[in-house]
Amino acid sequence: MRDPHDVMISVKDLRMRYGTNDVLHGVDFTAHRGEVICLLGPNGAGKTTTIEILEGFRMRSEGEVSVLGVDPAHADENWRARLGVVLQAWRDHAKWRVRELLEHLGGYYAPYSTDRIKRPWDPDELVAAVGLTEHADKKVRMLSGGQRRRLDVAIGIVGRPELLFLDEPTAGLDPEARREFHELVHRLTDDDDTTILLTTHDLDEAEKLADRILILNHGRIVADGSADALSRQIAGEAEVRWTLDGQRFVHSTTESTKYVHELFKQHGDAIGDLEVRRASLEDTYMTLVRKAESLEAVGAR
Which of 192, 212, 228 lies at the terminal end of a domain, its last residue? Predict the structure, then answer.
């Protein structure tokens, strides 16, 4: 059972209206310390609006919002120092050198250091953590697109945030840099108990990183759970594949564990290439979004 003191984000009946246009319709969710939550949804679903409200950059129309125990609409600089934000594109710091820039920005966080969290992150450690040690003395304008993206992440975490917002963080990264970024995310959550709210269009990334996935569609949360739990929700059957005596077999079942157990009981070590497949996150996502849109269309009639 989770400690209620570990709630880092609490959102209840969040609504946002622009004129007569409702963008968010009663959004509810919580995020706990050390949890990675991925917010998925089609363009225009309300993801950016939701995150901007949580970051304190946009006022909501209705509802209750608590971030790190504070209403973002009335938060101060002490609260903001506890947050980290990585945008899709950061302001250009072309004339700065990488380490010099991080040391400079880190200085703004020093007054907000606590007994529990020493701020800022040491610039050499941070440069190493994001894989820019070889480029620490380069001017930002000399970095490649992928290297600049690593710098964006470094800027977002320089103050050792308790809560980190990541907007498409691996856009423009090559596969190796993407893998290193994923390792950094795990380090932040495992070692520092950082809570992370992530938006991405990369469903494979969401599945690898997220403890929980929220799917937002037309301003409503239409699904909330782990990738595995969501796939079970839409697909009762799993596909069991195996080989036996050189032949390939496929069987669909709602009780894959029991079926595999019986399979080994019957054939033992003769079973080869065993694989149990459930619906992928992409299958799950598309099914849940289409289902929500169908319900929306029926309700609009």
Answer: 228
Structure tokens, 142: 């000399």
pLDDT digit string (tens) for 190-239?
988 999 999 988 888 888 899 999 999 889 998 898 888 787 766 556 78
Domains of the chain: total: 2
Distances (CA, A) of 142 to 103, 106, 145: 19, 22, 10
pLDDT digits (tens, 9 = 90+) for 87-112: 776 666 788 999 999 999 999 999 99
Kindly give the pairing relationship between strand 36-40 and strand 62-67.
unpaired
- For residues 11 and 70, membership in a common domain is answered with yes
CA dihedral 85, 89, 90, 96 (to 10 degrees): 140
Residues 296 and 173 in one domain: no
CA dihedral 130, 182, 7, 55 (to 10 degrees): 60
Domain housing 246: 235-300
Asked whether the CA dihedral 216, 162, 52, 102 is positive or negative, the reply is negative
